[in-house]
Design goal:
- Pathway: Protein modification; protein glycosylation.
- This is Beta-1,4-N-acetylgalactosaminyltransferase.
- Its cofactor is Mn(2+).
- One of its GO terms (biological process) is carbohydrate metabolic process.
- It is a single-pass type II membrane protein.
- The chain is built from 7 helices and 12 strands.
- The chain is an alpha/beta fold.
- Strands 1, 2, 3, 4, 6, 8, 9, 11 and 12 form a 9-stranded mixed sheet that branches.
- Strand 11 and strand 12 form a beta hairpin.
- Helix 6 runs parallel beside helix 7.
- The longest helix has 15 residues.
- It starts with a helix and ends with a strand.
- Bound molecules: uridine-diphosphate-N-acetylgalactosamine (UD2) and manganese (II) ion (MN).
- The site of manganese (II) ion (MN) has 4 residues, from loops.
Length: about 290
């Protein structure tokens, strides 16, 4: 409420100027199929930052202007050495998300050189760093090379964890197997805390997503999914990473380690941090060993 005293003095009226409280945002309801067509031509990060920056708050954050967001979503992207994908991802994901009536911020968690890539540890770091900025209710863990293809794919967190990347062109738009949780997945803050985050034991390619799937089952959580015609994605081209030979062994032992391998055991330094117009960047050094 704002009352303008000087105005009252001048004309003697009791008039007050009030600001209506904003309504709560409504999730968009899209009945018909609504393709999102990503622009996958390469553009430099500088140009993307210049183009999209004015539409965003610094650090790649957004909230609707005309309503109060119902969902506060941290988008956490594990990253190293895929700059072409990063700029294509940013150019498209903001365009896609800005129309969803949610408040969100993009967290790019880059691993320093030295150790093999550890996607799961980076997501734990993303969770912890994001929580220092805001008490997000929803976390979406997102491969940098996946772009959504339908506007009905709403980026929020339902009662159960949601596997989002159900139908990817690379897998002929079919779910590879029932328990898959890799690619893009959504968990509430509570879900994530309940399972102690991801395991930090998976260095190199593979297994970390299945380990999370096991953690969820162990906590009596079930994987929800949008229908196959909505949860559609395209994967940008890349070479296949070398698979971690220990991934099966890790998976077998994983269930016994939930309580002491995860959010409560991750050790890292943030080597560098920067707020770019279209993303918040964390350069993280893992202090855990292979
Ligand atoms: C699958 C999963 C992925 C993960 C991975 C195994 C799907 C759709 N995707 O992806 O979620 O479980 O298998 O670990 O099921 N990355 C980098 N730099 C690297 C390596 C990886 O930035 O050097 C990041 C990047 O965000 C990438 C993601 O990690 O998209 C997954 O790695 P990938 O794309 O090489 O693996 P992929 O496609 O087999
Ligand atoms: Mn990939």
């Amino acid at each position: 409420l704002h009352s303008n005293n000087s105005l009252n003095q001048v004309n003697g009226s009791k008039e007050t100027i009030t600001t209506e409280p904003l309504p709560l945002c409504q999730d968009p309801v899209i009945e018909e199929s609504s393709p999102f067509v990503p622009n996958i031509t390469l553009e430099s990060l500088d140009v993307i930052n210049d183009q999209l920056g004015p539409l965003l708050e610094p650090g790649g954050a957004f909230k609707p202007k005309d309503c109060i967001a119902r969902h506060h979503v941290a988008i956490v992207v594990p990253f190293r050495d895929r700059y072409a994908h990063l700029s294509i991802f940013l150019r498209n994901i903001h365009k896609f998300l800005m129309q969803q009536r949610i408040a969100y911020r993009i967290f790019i968690i880059e691993q320093t050189n030295g150790k093999p890539f550890n996607r799961a540890a980076l997501m734990n770091i993303g969770f912890l760093e994001a929580m220092k900025l805001y008490k997000w209710d929803c976390f979406i863990f997102h491969d940098v090379d996946l772009l959504p293809l339908d506007n009905r794919n709403l980026y929020n967190c339902p009662r159960q964890p949601r596997h989002m990347s159900v139908a990817i062109d690379k897998f002929n738009y079919k779910l590879p197997y029932r328990t898959i949780f890799g690619g893009v997945s959504a968990m509430t803050r509570e879900h994530f805390l309940t399972v102690n985050g991801f395991s930090n034991s998976y260095f190199g390619w593979g297994g970390e997503d299945d380990d999370m799937s096991n953690r969820l089952r162990n906590a009596n959580l079930f994987i929800a999914r949008y229908p196959i015609n909505i949860a559609r994605y395209t994967m940008l081209k890349h070479q296949k990473e070398k698979a971690n030979p220990k991934r099966y062994e890790n998976l077998v032992n994983g269930i016994n380690k939930i309580g002491n391998d995860g959010l409560n055991s991750i050790k890292y330094d943030i080597y560098s941090y920067k707020s770019y117009p279209t993303f918040s960047w964390y350069y993280a050094e893992l202090k855990i060993s292979e």
